[in-house]
Amino acid sequence: MVSKKVGYLTTFAILLHEIPHEVGDFAILLRAGFDRWSAACMQLSTALVGVLGACFALCAQSPKGTENATAWILPFTSGGFLYIAMVNVVPDLLEESSLWQSLLHVLLIFCGMAVMAVLSAIVD
């Protein structure tokens, strides 16, 4: 809706996030007592709902209303990701007792930012 560049970068970032996230969810379902088949079916069903939501959003958009939609969708989504980071990641960093581990976490955060900056320069 914004540009091909933003679309490619967002897709890449989501893939990098979702693959380990889905593996972790699968492990949680196994630990909760699901067998492998049931856990895989649950993961597939949640993924399909996400794809259906994306398809609905793409079908519902109109060329005329794209500017209005992106004016609130991008800040809302960015804010959601920042909230998740502040609630889930930062407290874990603050509880870390090892200075080396804290520095490693911060270094990896900057590496992620550098990867997105490089991709932003390369794409389009």
UniProtKB/TrEMBL annotation:
Catalysed reactions listed for this entry: Zn(2+)(in) = Zn(2+)(out)
GO cellular component: membrane
UniProt-annotated location(s): Membrane
UniProt keyword annotations, A-Z: Ion transport, Membrane, Transmembrane, Transmembrane helix, Transport, Zinc, Zinc transport
Bilayer disposition of the protein: Multi-pass membrane protein
GO terms of biological process kind: intracellular zinc ion homeostasis
Chief location: membrane
Source organism, top-level taxon: Eukaryota
Organism for this UniProt entry: Notothenia coriiceps
Sequence intervals crossing the membrane: 37-59, 71-90, 102-123
Protein name: Zinc transporter ZIP13
Family, per entry: Belongs to the ZIP transporter (TC 2.A.5) family.
Entry GO MF terms: zinc ion transmembrane transporter activity
Keyword Transmembrane: yes
InterPro entries with a match to the protein in the record: ZIP
Entry annotated with the keyword Ion transport: yes
